[in-house]
User: Fold this.
Amino acid sequence: MGFYLAQLLTGLANASSLFLIASGLSIIFGVTRIVNFAHGSFFMIGAYLAYSCVTWFDVGILGFWGSMLFAALCVAVIGGVIEILLLRRLYKSPELFQLVATFGIVLVVQDIALAIWGAEDLLGPRAPGLDRAVRILGEPIPEYDLALIVIGPLVLGLVWLLFHRTHWGILVRAATQDREMVAALGVNQQWLFTSTFMLGSFLAGLGGALQVPRESVSLLMDLSIIGEAFVVVVIGGMGSVTGAFIAAILISVLNSFGILLFPSISLLLPFLVMAVVLIVRPWGLLGKPGSGHGAPEAPQDPLRLLGKRAIWAWALILAALLTLPLADDGFLLVLMVDVLIAILFAASLQFLMGVGGMVSFGHAAYFGLGAYGAALCVKYANISMEFALVAGPVIGALGALFFGWFCVRLSGVYLAMLTLAAAQILWGIAFQWQDVTGGDDGILGLWPSEWASSQSAYFYLTLVLCSIGLMLLRRIAHSPFGYVLRGGRDSALRIEAIGLDLKAHQWMGFALVGGLAGLAGVLFAFSKGSIFPDSLSIPHSVDALIMVLLGGIQSLIGPILGAVSFILLEDWISRLDYWRFIFGTIILLIVVTAPNGLAGLLAPLWHKRRQRSGKGQSQ
Amino acid sequence: MSILTIEGLSKSFGGVEAVKNVSFTLNEGEFLALIGPNGAGKSTCFNMINGYLKPDKGKLLLQPQESKSRNLVGKKPRQIWRWGVGRTFQITATFASMTVRENVQMALISHHKKSFNLWARASHLDRDQAEQLLEKVSMLDMAGQACSELAYGDLKRLELAIALAHDPKLLLMDEPTAGMAPSERTALMELVAQIVKDQGLSVLFTEHDMDVVFEHADRILVLNRGELIAQGTAEQIRNDALVQEVYLGGGSVFAKETANEAHHAET
Assistant:
């Protein structure tokens, strides 16, 4: 009995810090509609700052709690600066831009933290006055955990008072419901957004600071907490602080008991709960319908088929690529294989997002499914590469059919979150099911068949398959099926009113891109000879998003430009010290200066040419 | 011969009875208007007929001459469309990222059940037929334009062309002239009337503009607080005491001049 109570109390203590970070995320989303990936970074900075403060001014109880508050306040100021300098420019951009921009912040913050605090884990002191354990029903419970259990509801109460008893809080709640209306009433939006962002950052910083006596501070804190925080926000309902509280308790308590039954469930459970909640209540426990959407998307230009000249240009590029092995540069060929795989991966995501209007934050799921599916078949059924090249895409498509069935029932940010959850579930399986997937050690020994084992042969194989994949995607984008998806993006109402089942088409669209991403995954696995769980991870999904964004989400040629520049850039930068900082800064610059991506930058030149060359293509 | 029979249609939202026991029929080839003040239940009625709302009670029977009678209750909008019911929206819903012609082609693609085709070029399919439909609404010259560039009145005409694509027997138009200038309203309704006559369509429409209603409707239904309070020709409705009371609390409301003034005051 005492044992179960101890589990419960540990769960509740965990819930408190989870609630702090998630409530901040939820408040920020509610008002600004920004999905803030950098929230985990605020959590991490809070922990590092609190660590430094506590170790510098070691002055007893007051000094300890003062340090916690001081660290949180510093994070609030940092958040405010980021909001003013960066996010302010992005409120009218699609979700993708905001997400990628905040991921840029994640990268920059990681390297700044590395530069200041170093790569070693830092173990902070215990809280003075709360450094022992009390015995409850014979079980030792850390006093600090009990303090955390009190702090969670206390913060909830304070936030509630702030929102219900102050003028500012009423404005925040009003803006969460309808920010256009609040703006129409003459409220200074900029100030409201900045202060909301600061409050959210403060809560994240506080959550991080309070973790210092419990766990060592490390550079992994940001991404390891953010997935769970997203889940809590989505389960609770975007913008609902009380919902976040309930969800944090639900997740943490379930987790602390789930661990007793299945020790390896901790990575999976939150995402499973989220999937179940979203199916039963598509807007979360306390969320309201219609609050899940970001900025409305602007209409795109109608699609045009390729002109004769463009077809020739592509044929020339392809021909040039075919001669590449003649240059006989092993390094270049390996890099080109990476580029081609990235192009196919990015193009499949662009199809889903740009054509279908379905934002996926977890596209790595299908890439990884293809790769792992093929690798497992090779490992256990001993099939050849040729069969694996069929099996991978099929498994990717089947996985997409499974997750897609749930995903197409949602829209906007909720859909994106569910795709993220799907990817995290798969990552958890790959990471934890050591007996089958090899866990962190991955699966090794995936070699191409004899005929394809030379670098140039594998390059040709990749070139052919990726080109076919790309042509297929383009062909389908122009087909009736692709048009239905585009139409659904423009007006789901009209699609239904001309007798079409949009969800069925979207579902098939999911399967299609899942299959192609799976193909990219298999090609990747055989090119490296191995596969690891990070091919399913959030950063890999974000890579694909960055490629799509770099190239410009609206254009079908965008993913090609995006993937090429991404891989080349990554190849060059990742050899430098502090490459994350450089890369993050580049991302931020691009998001702010070129909201339509590289294709968008080039488009005006193209249009000018087209106009000069006459109206022959206006049909 | 009736094409649509509605019996005892009811719908409540929470405790509010939006539509109470409404029954009427729409005859083949008829141009039938559904009017009433704001909150009378017009849109609720409409949305039950086209499948966006499920009635609490009542019958909705579609009885086209050449095929069997269908019960519309609980059917999805897309199913109802497949049975030959076209519709236009109060606030236009079109595909902004496509050309005008492609918008019509989409409806044709759906009608010909080619929507899962992954290989054909959508912009080449049913092109001539799409252009014939655009011709009907005098928009052929705009066929290649991006839909996002159209003026509102043109969008309304485009919606009409889309609604005609599957050769419907029944056309449901929710406030076809809402948001249009007075001169455009007349032009659009004359166009609709012409098409209805040419193709032998039956039309049910809701409308706020009394000029439009009295000018074009064969018969008028008046809803108030969810109940059908009158039906008849323009003349009968104009002289109906109950209708007059509902609309302006009595007086000689529907003398033409007064109706005009009321309309101007509204806009």
